[in-house]
Amino acid sequence: FLEKLETPSTSYSVNQPNSSESEQSLSTRHFNVTEPVVAKRICFYKSGDPQFNGIKMVINNRSYKTFDALLDSLSKRVPLPFGVRNISTPKGRHCITNLEDLEDGKSYICSHQRKMKPINLERASKKPLPWQISRPISARRRAVQLARENEVGFGHRERKITTPKKILVFKNGDVRLRRTIILGKRNTQTFEAFLDYMSELMQYPVLKLYTTDGRKVPNLQALILCSGAVVAAGREPFKPSNYDSLGYSRPAKLLGIANRVYPKANAKSETRKWKVSVLTSDMPSAETSSKVYITLYGDHRNSGPIFLDGEEGKLFQRGNEDIFTVHTGNIGNLYKIRVGHTNSGNSPAWHCEELLNLFSGEQFSFPAHRWLAWDQANGETSMELPVFCQGQPVLPVTVYEVHVTTGELWNAGTEADVYISIYGEKGDTGSRQLLRSQKPKKFLKGQTDMFSVEAVHLGHLYKIVIGHNGLGSGNGWYLDKVVIKDPITDLDYTFLCHRWLDSGQDDGNIARELTWAAEKWKFQKGNTLQFYNRLTGGFICLSPDSKVDALGDKKNKYGLFDVIVKRGNICIFSSHQIPHLALALVNGYATGKTCCELRVHLQPNGSAILESARNPGHTVTFNLQGKVADDTTGYAGLSREFVVHVKGVFHHGAIILLNTNLCQALSLRPDGSCSGTGQQQQESYWKVHKIGSGVCMFESVRNPRMYLKIKDGQCNGTGTGDEYCHFKIEKNLEAGSVSLESVRNKGMYVGLLPDGQTKPVINIGENNIFFYPQIIKFGREKPMGTSAAPNQEKKEEMRNPQGGECPPPSADEWKVSMMTGNAGTQVNVTLWIYGDRGAFGPITLGKDNRKQLFLPRQEDEFQVANEDYSQSEWNLQSVTLQHLMSKKTLNFPANTWLSKNSVDRDFVFELPVVEAGKPIYPIVLYHVYVYTGDLEQADTDSAVYLCIYGKRGDSGLRLLRKSGIPVKFRRGKVNAFEVEAVSLGKLQKVLLRCEANSKSQYWYCDKVIVREAENNLEYVFNCKRWLPFMSQGVIHSEIDLYPQEGDWKITVVTGDFETAGTTATVSLYAYGEKKASGPIILGSGKHQLFNPNSEDTFKINLRDLGQLYKIRIGHDNTGNDPSWYLEEVRLERLVPLSQEEICLPIECWLAEDKGEGDTWRELAIRNPTKELLPLLVYEIHVYTGAKLGAEADFNVYINLIGTRGDAGKRKLHRSKNNNVKFQHGQMDIFFIKAVSLGDLEKVLISHDGAAPGNGWFLDKIVIKYKEGKEAQEVVFPCNRWLDEYQDDGKTQRELTAKSKYFVTDFFFCGNNTVLFTA
């Protein structure tokens, strides 16, 4: 037996705040309308703490303008772990949400959570004694206090425990942090008291308890009935893990665990003493002469082998019981042991009967009843035994099949003794000798030997260590691979080696650590990845505002992540689009952060789990809706596995493997046939030739000019590059695989027969058409361009090796010939080609051999791409393009210098097509004038680029520079440049880019003027904007500017007091008689716009709207201070120029917490021929249904639609008749101001609640309004759920008007109240 001799107590004296999980529904409280009080004297107490003396404060409009400001002030004075989040009445029955709800002379309770803990105000208001102020309240005292409060009516009694019970408590998501406690009368007075007790013990705010399988423990009765282990959580949702009460293994030697720091209680708890009792069988010859050892495995670490030493010759004798004292560190909770011997002495065989232990007063038994001997039973000299709980092993014992394949090299076999150690997520097997193979002789050249290894189940395997002892003749060994079959999960794990274990070969090592790395290549440095979630059907996306979801499609630019390898399986996944942000885990939730290390756990199904390297147990997890999982997400709705896709697999020139399983790939055999059983080596390498979007050819690397093809019912590698070799790539996002469909024979795929041979097949859903691509070498990295390489053969290049003609060129292929003048160059040369149907480029003219290009008086012809050199001047004589099919030749005479350094030379040059000695379009010199604004800090040293767009194409992006150096754009100055290009025709727009590295380098451009002197044309492109600028949370470094035709100028005037500005993004909607336009993003207050006492001017395009009749302006309520006081909006038509300016005074707050509580405002525009439309107040009555769970606790939005347009999507923010809106069977009233919508026809109603249980049952909506003398009432029935998990799963509904009533009397009676009388 094992007996723990000392059990040092582990105690904490940390005073944790009170916490609770159970929620109470807040009943509606109606406050009487009274005269406003100039100042209110109020006392605030701390939730659940009668020792807190209270904070007395004076509340008036000057001291606190908003309720949030009061909460911020209280957070600094009332000690709560997360600040003051809620204020309630003394008994916690009513929640306070507005300053107006506070009553003079009253007392209130502050809490950091929704659930308030009532206190006895009579006792709390008394000044405490000095020792009561400084003395921390213990869990026992708090339990007694709460019990007494329950007796006087502040709570209710729960079921009491009568018999003490031991229970193990895990920290949510971190199985290493746990505490063993005894449930007794002292710590279970109430459920609330127990949660507080756990908060102190765990040093972590415990708000909820779960069972180990994710079910919530709501009360004491459920806690008492638990099976022996619970999970303690805070606000975060349940995080599934291996919460085994006696069986989770993460020994210190496991991958990624060695350097972790485990929590300590005190110094004494690190040393443990155990009493071990070993019973040797009474069978003949059961005794042993070997040294016996034992290894104890706990959920913190393992003890390592401990030899059971004693008087020699008297230990482990037949029928004897031997008792030992064993010293270990703090291994945590024991879940398995390994016992074995060294197989030494005259009679090493041993028959072990049983091992017993007493652990913390509870006895466990390890029945053995088996031989440990190389010549008995299975030949093992060690065995593993799991801990039993309630008569069942906490982990099963399994027999792994270990298949060891020796390579086929000369002298690959060995006669040495081979040992293996298998590692999984639940421990390791220890070193085991591979003794008995099913073959007569082990480890022969090309042979696969099968061995059995018995062990307590290890969970998911991730590595092995295999080696030999170096003894025997020819002990060197070439190991090909090891395959381990797990009979419990029915999974095969392949560990590839392909290396020598020989002191005289390779690196001289005779032992190797092999990882199960079928997907590991994807996480190499520099790869760009996408993470696909099978549950949500979308990719992980990291937005510029740091929000993360799993809803992106495969083309979403925010779904790309660059791999930065830190160490081992720990990586940083940096956003490809926003390099300063990386995928991160903060407090257990996925978000964007500057830098965060994530540990990659590859799963047997090919997917990956991303775990925080700093906080083990925290993983990137989403709910069914693709949002980051939160408290409302149930265990069944969590998804944390992702299929990893690598970008660039099928880029032109890439070399790839088309894997068919973990260790085999599609290969080309010498006879031209193909097989899916090839080794993942050079014989299976294929070179990708990209033909078009999603269409590729695959050329064998070992046998050049032999292509994969489907023709005449055969699938092989004898293709010559014609259309029979073209395959459409179909990607299977769910599995990370691809299928190859023949372009010529549609519906026919490259398939595999049972023997691995390839054959054209039809897709009937079988897996025999799936291939798993793996990149060996990346191809062309620039997806928007192409590349060319020099041809080294003239006539011969058009013939294949068999002497037949090569396939004819396609209709889009050209041969490029370039003649260099008297001076050559070594720089990269890039080519664009323009035609009447579009442009093609950039085409990089490089090389894939060492031949020097662009030498003086040399002509070069091209096909592939290459390297970068430093020489920077080049004399270009001419360029010739020849169409390969029609043989048509186009000549581009140049005779020009391209240089970065010369004042009068450029390094980008455009050439027109020359026919009959004349260019079909002339080269035009465009004069560009860039005006920098006269604002403070408007100048910049940053590089500025310009691209001019016309009817015939564009000039390409040109750096605005002089003498080879970018210029400085000075405040209030004009910079002049020249851009030479083939005539672009009528100019349509310019693109302006400023690459600023910091805010101090931002640039304010006033306008750009482009003049075409020969035709006496001038184009004005107004900008009047900072570059870069932010729009909808995204920073843009470039902007398109359009000529002034049809443009309007809008001036937005912000109020002149200190807090009038906003940090939100402002948008505009414009409505005309023909159509509407919007949203038009004006900009963000985060970028020096919409400051107090400022006018911001914008150019907007309102073409084809017809006569304007209204606008709507507002913001998205983002940023630290989104509230905005808007003074007025002015509109001026520029083309045709109008002398009249439309002034629209507003003079109100656009804010949720100020004014009318709306962030949008509609304004009517006067039509000279029609009457001005009135601004109406729409009174909206929302009826929540009376069904169970009908209430809503999330944001609800509405859009009113009538015959004159819509009111826009408005948030129903503040109920006029209820403090808590959308409650069961309740009617809430809201007001929306909008320009007259005419006759109301329908409404759009929606909400943003996404998790299970966040549904809302809407009965109906009634809208009342008055236009002219006639008041109207329109009813929109619904009687349906808005719930992703009920009804049809929709959270937005379009409701149609069913009935309309006319009201004779309609008038306002103050305080936003409207009365109707029939």
UniProtKB/TrEMBL annotation:
<feature type="domain" description="PLAT">
    <location>
        <begin position="1046"/>
        <end position="1164"/>
    </location>
</feature>
<dbReference type="InterPro" id="IPR003533">
    <property type="entry name" value="Doublecortin_dom"/>
</dbReference>
<dbReference type="GO" id="GO:0005930">
    <property type="term" value="C:axoneme"/>
</dbReference>
<keyword id="KW-0966">Cell projection</keyword>
<keyword id="KW-0970">Cilium biogenesis/degradation</keyword>
<dbReference type="InterPro" id="IPR008996">
    <property type="entry name" value="IL1/FGF"/>
</dbReference>
<dbReference type="GO" id="GO:0032391">
    <property type="term" value="C:photoreceptor connecting cilium"/>
</dbReference>
<keyword id="KW-0677">Repeat</keyword>
<feature type="domain" description="Doublecortin">
    <location>
        <begin position="40"/>
        <end position="122"/>
    </location>
</feature>
<feature type="domain" description="PLAT">
    <location>
        <begin position="924"/>
        <end position="1041"/>
    </location>
</feature>
<comment type="subunit">
    <text>Interacts (via the doublecortin domains) with microtubules. Interacts with RP1L1. Interacts with MAK.</text>
</comment>
<dbReference type="InterPro" id="IPR036392">
    <property type="entry name" value="PLAT/LH2_dom_sf"/>
</dbReference>
<dbReference type="GO" id="GO:0035556">
    <property type="term" value="P:intracellular signal transduction"/>
</dbReference>
<comment type="function">
    <text>Microtubule-associated protein regulating the stability and length of the microtubule-based axoneme of photoreceptors. Required for the differentiation of photoreceptor cells, it plays a role in the organization of the outer segment of rod and cone photoreceptors ensuring the correct orientation and higher-order stacking of outer segment disks along the photoreceptor axoneme.</text>
</comment>
<dbReference type="InterPro" id="IPR052970">
    <property type="entry name" value="Inner_ear_hair_cell_LOXHD"/>
</dbReference>
<feature type="domain" description="PLAT">
    <location>
        <begin position="1176"/>
        <end position="1296"/>
    </location>
</feature>
<feature type="compositionally biased region" description="Polar residues">
    <location>
        <begin position="7"/>
        <end position="27"/>
    </location>
</feature>
<keyword id="KW-0969">Cilium</keyword>
<feature type="domain" description="Doublecortin">
    <location>
        <begin position="165"/>
        <end position="244"/>
    </location>
</feature>
<feature type="domain" description="PLAT">
    <location>
        <begin position="812"/>
        <end position="912"/>
    </location>
</feature>
<protein>
    <recommendedName>
        <fullName>Oxygen-regulated protein 1</fullName>
    </recommendedName>
</protein>
<dbReference type="Pfam" id="PF01477">
    <property type="entry name" value="PLAT"/>
</dbReference>
<dbReference type="GO" id="GO:0030030">
    <property type="term" value="P:cell projection organization"/>
</dbReference>
<dbReference type="Pfam" id="PF03607">
    <property type="entry name" value="DCX"/>
</dbReference>
<dbReference type="GO" id="GO:0009416">
    <property type="term" value="P:response to light stimulus"/>
</dbReference>
<feature type="region of interest" description="Disordered">
    <location>
        <begin position="782"/>
        <end position="811"/>
    </location>
</feature>
<dbReference type="InterPro" id="IPR001024">
    <property type="entry name" value="PLAT/LH2_dom"/>
</dbReference>
<feature type="domain" description="PLAT">
    <location>
        <begin position="398"/>
        <end position="515"/>
    </location>
</feature>
<dbReference type="InterPro" id="IPR036572">
    <property type="entry name" value="Doublecortin_dom_sf"/>
</dbReference>
<feature type="region of interest" description="Disordered">
    <location>
        <begin position="1"/>
        <end position="27"/>
    </location>
</feature>
<keyword id="KW-0716">Sensory transduction</keyword>
<feature type="domain" description="PLAT">
    <location>
        <begin position="272"/>
        <end position="386"/>
    </location>
</feature>
<keyword id="KW-0206">Cytoskeleton</keyword>
<dbReference type="GO" id="GO:0001917">
    <property type="term" value="C:photoreceptor inner segment"/>
</dbReference>
<keyword id="KW-0963">Cytoplasm</keyword>
<dbReference type="GO" id="GO:0001750">
    <property type="term" value="C:photoreceptor outer segment"/>
</dbReference>
